[in-house]
C-alpha cells in the first residue's frame, strides 16, 4: 500500500468539480485506509467543502485562471509538500483538447509535474494506485430537526447562461403543481447572486423573488455561505433543480435530487443517495449536445433552450410532481434510480453504450446486467 497519495485535481471552479475531486479522494481512502491522503484544488472552487470530508488529511489550493497561460505557479506550488509517493492528476489534464481550451490549466499542470517530479505519476481514479471504484459517501453534515410538513428545496438555476435555465413562469408552474399535491409544503429557495470569485446563479434577485411569491411558505437561503446552504439542504426532503454542481453537493449532503434533465450534460455522479432525472423527449426538446453546439433557442420570456422551455415543462409536469413526491416519501431506491437513468440515457443516445459516461464508469455495471 502506498504511504501517501496526492489527488491533484485542479480544474474549472464550479461546485461540482470539487465534489468530483472529493469522490476520487474517498475512493483512494476506501482502498488505502492507512495512507496519507491530500488534495489540490483550484482556489476559486469551494475549497471549504473539504471541511465536511474527514477522509481527506491535507488540503491545498492554487489560484488558477483556466484561460491565462502566463501565470507563474511556482510560488503557490512551493507551499505544497512535494514528498508524495504518488501524484494522481485529474484525467482532463491528459486530454489535449481540454488543455487547448484551457491554456491556464495546461500551464498549471506543466508546473505541477515539475514540482511533484519525485512522486510516481498517475491518473485520479484509474491507476496505478489501488482505488475503490463507485464508493458511496456523504458529507459530514449534521442532521437537524425537520418540520412535520414536506420541505422542498428549489435551485432555479446555476452559473451557465440564463437561457439554459427555466423561465420564471415555468418555475411558478412547478411550484403551483407541487402545492396542489403537497398543500402544506414549505419551500426553501437556494442560489447565489452575490458577486465574487466563485460561480453564481445567472437568475436575478427579482426573478428569484417572483418564483418565491408563488408559494405561501418560503425560507430564503439565497446567498448564505455554502456550508450553511448545505446544512439547510440537509434538512430538506428533496431538491428540485436542473443539472448543477450544487445538485451534486446536495446528493453529497444526503438529500435526494429531482433533476429536471436537459441542456448539455446528463447526470454522472451517483453516490448511493436516491435521485430521479426527468429526461426530456429529445425529438421535441433537443438536449445533451455535451461539448457540441447548443440547439437553437426558443422564445419563452426571452431566448430559452428547448429542454428548459415552458412547453417542455408542461409536457413533463406530471412526472416532475409524481417523482418529487416519491422522493419525499422515500419510495425511490438508489439502485432502481441508477438503472432507470442508464436505460433512459441509452434510449436517448440511440442505443449506443459508448456514448454514455459516469464518474467511476458505474454505468458499465448496469449495462452489463441488461
Strand fraction band? 5-15%
Element-by-element helix/strand order: EHEEHEHHEEHEHEHEHEEEEHHH
Form type:
globular
Largest pleated sheet = 6 strands, parallel
Q: What is the alpha-carbon Rg in Å?
A: 21 Å
The end-to-end distance, rounded to whole angstroms, is 35 Å
Mean pLDDT: 96
The helicity comes to 25-40%
Sequence of strands across the biggest β-sheet:
8-7-6-9-10-11
Total beta strand runs: 13
Supply the number of helical segments. 11
What class, by secondary structure content? alpha/beta
Unreliable stretches, pLDDT < 50, 5 or more residues?
none
Describe the protein's architecture and organization.
The protein has 370 residues and is of the alpha/beta class. It has helices at residues 15-31, 74-78, 96-101, 103-115, 168-181, 205-212, 226-234, 245-252, 310-328, 334-348, 363-369; strands at 4-8, 36-42, 58-62, 86-89, 120-123, 151-154, 186-189, 218-220, 238-242, 257-260, 275-278, 298-299, 303-304. The protein has a six-stranded parallel sheet with strand order 8-7-6-9-10-11, sandwiched between helices. It is globular, with a radius of gyration of 21 Å. It starts with a strand and ends with a helix.
Indicate the topology:
Blueprint: E1 4-8, H1 15-31, E2 36-42, E3 58-62, H2 74-78, E4 86-89, H3 96-101, H4 103-115, E5 120-123, E6 151-154, H5 168-181, E7 186-189, H6 205-212, E8 218-220, H7 226-234, E9 238-242, H8 245-252, E10 257-260, E11 275-278, E12 298-299, E13 303-304, H9 310-328, H10 334-348, H11 363-369
Parallel strand pairs: 1-2, 1-4, 2-3, 4-5, 6-7, 6-9, 7-8, 9-10, 10-11
Antiparallel strand pairs: 12-13
Amino acid at each position: 500500500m502506498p504511504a501517501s497519495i496526492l489527488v491533484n485535481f485542479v480544474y474549472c471552479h464550479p461546485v461540482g468539480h470539487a465534489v468530483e475531486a472529493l469522490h476520487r479522494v474517498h475512493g483512494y481512502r476506501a482502498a488505502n485506509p492507512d495512507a496519507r491522503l491530500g488534495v489540490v484544488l483550484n482556489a476559486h472552487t469551494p475549497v471549504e467543502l473539504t471541511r465536511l470530508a474527514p477522509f481527506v488529511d491535507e488540503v491545498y489550493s492554487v489560484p488558477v485562471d483556466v484561460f491565462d497561460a502566463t501565470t507563474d505557479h511556482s510560488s503557490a506550488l512551493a507551499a505544497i509538500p512535494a514528498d508524495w509517493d504518488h501524484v494522481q492528476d485529474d484525467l482532463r489534464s491528459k486530454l489535449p483538447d481540454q488543455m487547448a481550451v484551457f491554456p491556464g490549466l495546461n500551464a498549471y499542470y506543466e508546473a505541477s509535474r515539475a514540482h511533484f517530479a519525485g512522486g510516481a505519476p498517475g491518473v485520479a481514479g484509474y491507476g496505478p494506485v489501488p482505488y475503490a471504484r463507485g464508493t458511496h459517501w456523504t458529507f459530514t453534515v449534521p442532521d437537524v430537526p425537520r418540520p412535520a410538513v414536506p420541505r422542498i428545496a428549489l435551485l432555479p438555476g446555476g452559473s451557465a447562461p440564463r437561457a439554459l435555465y427555466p423561465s420564471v413562469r415555468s418555475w411558478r408552474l412547478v411550484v403551483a403543481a407541487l402545492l396542489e399535491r403537497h398543500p402544506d409544503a414549505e419551500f426553501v429557495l437556494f442560489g447565489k447572486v452575490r458577486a465574487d470569485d466563485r460561480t453564481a446563479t445567472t437568475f436575478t434577485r427579482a426573478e428569484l423573488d417572483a418564483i418565491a411569491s408563488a408559494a405561501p411558505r418560503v425560507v430564503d437561503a439565497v446567498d448564505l455561505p455554502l456550508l450553511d446552504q448545505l446544512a439547510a439542504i440537509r434538512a430538506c426532503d428533496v431538491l428540485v433543480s436542473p443539472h448543477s454542481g450544487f445538485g451534486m453537493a446536495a446528493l453529497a449532503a444526503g438529500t435526494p435530487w429531482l433533476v429536471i434533465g436537459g441542456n448539455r450534460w446528463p447526470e454522472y455522479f451517483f453516490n448511493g443517495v436516491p435521485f430521479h432525472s426527468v429526461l426530456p423527449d429529445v425529438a421535441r426538446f433537443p438536449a445533451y449536445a455535451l461539448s457540441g453546439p447548443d440547439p437553437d433557442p426558443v422564445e419563452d420570456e426571452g431566448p430559452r433552450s428547448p429542454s428548459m422551455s415552458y412547453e417542455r415543462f408542461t409536457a413533463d409536469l406530471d412526472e416532475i410532481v409524481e417523482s418529487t413526491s416519491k422522493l419525499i416519501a422515500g419510495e425511490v431506491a438508489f439502485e432502481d434510480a441508477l438503472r432507470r437513468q442508464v436505460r433512459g440515457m441509452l434510449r436517448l443516445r440511440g442505443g449506443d453504450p459508448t456514448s454514455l459516461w459516469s464518474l467511476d464508469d458505474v454505468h458499465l455495471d448496469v449495462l452489463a446486467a441488461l
